[in-house]
Write a structure and sequence with these properties.
This protein is mainly α. The protein has two domains: about 1-130, Alpha Horseshoe (Serine Threonine Protein Phosphatase 5, Tetratricopeptide repeat); about 190-265, no CATH class. The protein has helices spanning about 1-20, 40-55, 60-70, 75-90, 95-110, 115-125, 140-155, 160-185, 190-205, 210-225, 230-240, 245-255, 265.
């Protein structure tokens, strides 16, 4: 996953590096480069940072790009260095710093030609931090918002195309979290709370891989609540949309086993 992300981000870096930055060769890119304040011309600083980036010395590259902006804040090179710094932080997995750098770039240069890249970099910095469904999903929601922002602002860009693919994975992840909570409530016998979570999946994340199970669980909890007609309705929706799915087979067997008079105790253990 990360390889494809880095490829797209690196293409953006190559494009930025090629635009009107022909300057001199790397005069400051040797082993003696330091980030302590030493007044240097903007081309030397920028090229030293780029040389470090090319070598994979990401932490020093980011620091030197930051120093370029600090020493020469009004130079066109400073604008470029700002975004290159954000990429260097991203590449070293310093995502919070990458987000800060890209956000700062957008606050100062909102209409810049590289703004789509900055928005995408922010989205990917959140996306790379997504954790498993057992943990809090605040970062996942931030990734969702950031990816949607890329799509909304630049729908025809290469970044939007990749953001749409990532968004499908993010939504599947969020649906998975809803399912996990719903199953917990169901095991505890909190049928209405469980149904709320399962309905959230079929209403908000209906295109994800979790929808068939959510429909089955809704049928299951409806039987537990003593509403067999609702259970049959969910099973019918499941059959109409996922006729060959294993969850429909389970729903079919579940409905077949329990008649209209089914009680809570009969289905408490699930299908």
């Amino acid at each position: 996953m990360r390889l494809s992300n880095t490829r797209i981000l690196s293409l953006g870096v190559l494009a930025m590096s090629a635009v009107a930055l022909t300057g001199c060769a790397s005069r400051g890119g040797g082993s003696g480069v330091e980030t302590a304040y030493v007044a240097r011309d903007v081309e030397s600083l920028y090229n030293a940072a780029k040389a470090r980036l090319d070598r994979g010395d990401l932490a020093l590259a980011a620091a030197l790009f930051d120093e370029t902006e600090r020493q020469h804040p009004y130079s066109p090179w400073a604008r470029r260095a700002q975004l290159m710094s954000a990429f260097a932080y991203y590449a070293q997995r310093n995502y919070n710093q990458s987000i800060q750098s890209a956000t700062r770039f957008l606050s100062i240069h909102p209409g810049n030609r590289d703004a789509p890249y900055a928005y995408y970099l922010i989205a990917m910095s959140y996306y790379e931090q997504i954790s498993d469904v057992q943990r809090d999903q605040a970062i996942t929601l931030q990734a969702q918002r950031a990816l949607n922002e890329v799509i909304r602002r630049y729908p025809q860009s290469q970044y939007a195309n990749d953001a749409r693919l990532k968004l499908d994975l993010v939504n599947d992840h969020l649906a998975g979290k809803e399912m996990e909570i719903g199953r917990y409530y169901e095991r505890a016998g909190h049928w209405l709370a469980a149904q709320y979570r399962f309905r959230e999946v079929i209403e908000t994340y209906q295109t994800t891989s979790h929808t068939p199970e959510a429909l089955f669980r809704l049928a299951e909890t409806s039987l537990a609540l003593g509403i067999p007609e609702e259970a049959q309705r969910y099973a019918a929706v499941l059959g109409a949309n996922y006729p060959g799915d294993e969850w429909y087979e389970r729903a079919y067997r579940l409905i077949g086993r329990h008649g209209p008079a089914v009680g809570l105790e009969n289905v408490a253990q699930g299908g």
